[in-house]
UniProtKB/TrEMBL annotation:
SUPFAM superfamilies linked: NAD(P)-binding Rossmann-fold domains
Signal peptide residue numbers: none
CDD domains hit by this protein: SDR_c
Coiled-coil boundaries: none
Record-linked InterPro entries: KR_dom, NAD(P)-bd_dom_sf, Sc_DH/Rdtase_CS, SDR_fam, SDR_subfam_1
PANTHER family: DEHYDROGENASES, SHORT CHAIN, ESTRADIOL 17-BETA-DEHYDROGENASE 8-RELATED
PROSITE patterns named in the record: ADH_SHORT
UniProt name for this protein: Mycofactocin-coupled SDR family oxidoreductase
Keyword tags: NAD, Oxidoreductase
Family membership: Belongs to the short-chain dehydrogenases/reductases (SDR) family.
Residues covered by the Ketoreductase domain: 11-195
GO molecular function: oxidoreductase activity
């Protein structure tokens, strides 16, 4: 039986894109469930085509402070998920330090805006390299260690509502996030024999620096019909202040559930974390 208040006690979770936003919330929530944490982030600009501010080394230090104040250990490192060798070294060092790896939250991602026939090659390549290929590289680095540890485990792939529907204005992002569904479901079939579950989550409109309302308004001003694809959510979160966006903590609750024993029978699923928006 697992400990009901700390179901991940004695386990180790790797979270990518953990310097801020959803990734930080996942690291802190999983630590609250008892897990020690391996937290990485690029902590640097990813490309000139990503126009919102980049996460910093100080952001990742703050994640470490929050995990430690939850009473857990953490290994942090500035690593880009596009660098397989660096991800493999990180996993080797994390396993050397903590002894095992049980949970992977592949969360790192980037967003930019343009119509498909107008975007630059760098816009396309950056989004697909980070969101899709970077997630595969994360899996390539982490799964051997999870299998080797022999304890089973849980992989949570952070896709998006844009992984389940069309999102005009960011077709490269939607393509990368749809690709994650294929990655998730294939890995679920391949890793099941090792007791490793694999699911994707599909958040919508979460309150992080990735979402720049002014940029979106400028796009909708130019292409008013695109607005239909980005509706206000039907469900008001009890945790939302006034932003109208989903608090990161609400997403972290779902990640903690998928990481922990309460979802033991769930693998190869797509879990919308959309406050009902996909029903419009
Ligand atoms: N905010 C939303 O509304 C929303 C909705 C659906 C899905 N998502 C997805 O959620 C995930 C987290 O995004 P967020 O909303 O917290 O935004 P965010 O920009 O605050 O966080 C993303 C983090 O990933 C890191 N990162 C980006 N590229 C990286 C790379 N190559 N290597 C390592 N780290 C990298 C960034 O530095 C940043 O800290 C992303 O995959 C995003 O696509 C976000």
């Amino acid at each position: 039986m697992s400990n009901p208040t700390e179901p991940l006690l004695g386990q180790v979770a790797l979270v990518t894109g953990a310097a801020r936003g959803q990734g930080r919330a996942h690291a802190v929530r999983l630590a609250g469930q008892g897990a020690d944490i391996i937290a990485i982030d690029a902590c640097a600009p990813i490309s000139g085509t990503v126009t919102y501010p980049a996460a910093t080394a100080e952001d990742l230090t703050e994640t470490a402070r929050l995990v430690e104040s939850a009473g857990r250990k953490i290994l942090t490192r500035a690593v880009d998920v596009r660098d397989l060798a660096a991800m493999q070294q990180l996993v080797a060092d994390g396993v050397a330090q903590f002894g095992r790896l049980d949970v992977l939250v592949a969360n790192a991602g980037v967003l930019s805006w343009a119509r498909l026939w107008e975007m630059t090659e760098e816009q396309w390549d950056t989004v697909v390299d980070v969101n899709l290929s970077g997630t595969w590289r994360t899996i390539r680095a982490a799964l051997p260690a999870m299998i080797e540890a022999g304890n089973g485990g849980s992989v949570v792939i952070v896709s998006s509502s844009a992984g389940l529907k069309a999102t005009p204005g960011n077709g490269h992002y939607a393509a990368s996030k749809h690709g994650l569904v294929a990655l998730t479901n294939t890995l679920a079939l391949e890793a099941g024999e090792f007791g490793i579950r694999v699911n994707s989550i599909h958040p919508y409109s979460v309150d992080t620096p990735m979402i720049q309302p002014d940029d979106m308004m400028a796009l909708f001003g130019k292409h008013p019909s695109f607005l239909h694809s980005f509706p206000p959510v039907p469900l008001k979160s009890p945790n939302d202040g006034q932003s109208g966006f989903m608090p990161v903590e609400d997403v972290a609750e779902v990640v903690a559930w998928l990481a922990g024993p309460a979802s033991v029978a769930i693998t190869g699923t797509q879990v919308p974390v959309d406050a009902g928006a996909l029903k419009y």
